[in-house]
Amino acid sequence: MSPMASLTVGFDLDMTLIDSRPGIRACYLALSERTGTYIDADLAVTRLGPPLAEELVNWFPAEQVPAMADLYREMYPSIAIAASPAMEGAREAMEAVRAAGGRTMVVTAKYEPNAKLHLAHLGIEPDVVVGDLWAEGKARALREHGAGVYVGDHTGDVRGARTAGALSVAVATGPCPADELRAAGADVVLDDLAAFPRWLAGYREAPRA
């Protein structure tokens, strides 16, 4: 997408816009207590990004995973929402897009109703929220809404952006270090979202390709 064209920027949620580790850790501990099944919550929060089922299969037999996912999602709002703060620069990044006359969207693997609860709790108001999409699957929503930039913290987010033909902007605030994000094909790697407004200003001022 040319920087001069209409601007729509997509953002991932967990470890991009919000630090969901405290809330997710607490929810896994509650699920462990409820089911009597050991879950290493500290380990689980080091590998956020993929869908919930991909983590639960490490702790429950495959045939129990759908029911455990439903239980986790039921428990999640009362445990995880208030415990999960915004990432540094999250609100400013969203505002920078709006100030540029652009639209914002959140595309996340998280269960969509819970994603919306997080955003409402933190007062972050994207134009569009789409949940339950992971990696290349995110391309469907990005294409549908014309996103030319997608910002995320995981190599799966890089793949989603590239599949959609969007510019991949990666932030090294999640489980994937900067070198891994670059190796996955990220077009831009930032330390965190605090650097995003300045990057966006330069991107918009770049000459038309």
Q: Please, could you describe this protein's structure?
A:
The chain has 209 residues and is α/β, with parallel strands linked by helices. The chain has helices spanning 21-35, 41-44, 52-56, 65-80, 90-99, 112-122, 138-144, 155-164, 178-183, 196-205; strands spanning 8-11, 103-107, 128-130, 149-152, 167-171, 188-190. A six-stranded parallel β-sheet has the order 3-2-1-4-5-6, with helices on both faces. α6 links the parallel β2 (103-107) and β3. The radius of gyration is 17 Å and the shape is globular. The mean pLDDT is 96.
Short structural description:
With 209 residues, this protein is of the alpha/beta class. The chain is 45% helix and 11% strand.
In DSSP terms (H or I, runs of 4 or more residues), the helix count works out at 10
- Gross geometry: globular
Q: How much helical structure, as a percent, in the residues?
A: 40-55%
| Secondary-structure content class | alpha/beta
Radius of gyration: 17 Å
How do the strands line up in the largest sheet? 3-2-1-4-5-6
Which residues sit in consecutive blocks of at least 5 with pLDDT less than 50?
none
Q: Give the averaged pLDDT, no decimals.
A: 96
Sheet with the most strands, sense and barrel status: 6 strands, parallel
Distance between the termini: 9 Å
Count of extended strands: 6
Strand content: 5-15%
From N to C, what is the helix and strand string?
A: EHHHHHEHEHEHEHEH
